[in-house]
Amino acid sequence: MPSAPPHDTPEAATGAGAPLPLDDFLVRARTRLLAEPDLSGDPPRGDHELTPEYRVLVDALPVRAAAVLIPVIARPRPSVLLTLRSANLNSHPGQIAFPGGRIDPEDTGPLDAALREAHEEVGLARDLVTPLGYLDPYLTRTGFRIVPVVGVVRPEFGLELNPDEVDEAFEVPLDFLMSPDNHLRESRESQGLLRTFHAMTYERRRIWGVTAGILRSLYERVYG
Hints:
Layout: H1 22-32, E1 45-46, H2 54-59, E2 64-73, E3 79-85, E4 96-97, E5 100-102, H3 110-122, E6 129-134, E7 138-139, E8 144-153, E9 166-173, H4 174-177, E10 184-190, E11 193-202, E12 205-208, H5 209-222
């Protein structure tokens, strides 16, 4: 069930819910994001943060490398581009996600994989994306080690959705996503455990699980 953010949650530097100027975000992102992806070591972030019991289950799985793009659209009121996964997918159908997927052998690294997946899923052109940096890897309960790549996207982009993977693409204001007042924690039973996870709801959009966890990581890295 939903719960309020913990009392020790840091407040955004611009104030909860206040507009976040693009220039301020860019300065913070370029100075606070990781300059290179962390491809080694034990990921500090992941589903195990709020449900430590998951770590035993994850350690029994082969780790699979993946990357996602966090596309920040350079509008006067910056926004983040998200996707609604196809209802026909076998994995996480109908959930809100970032463009992204597995890092293939032919990819040169997480950035290349994230940009390739964004183009394949929603038709986002690579030359419209300026990479800003990386977040700490995020380890999912299914064994994916996701490297989030943050990039700023020129607003004149066009999209062409791949119907096999994406039902819809939409934008959520960055100030909403970076306001801790909108960060909730929810719990439900899964795999015989009480799973606790991050969640955010914007209008009729319910963002939860890995996507909300990565957004929380972005907030803590850039504004915390």
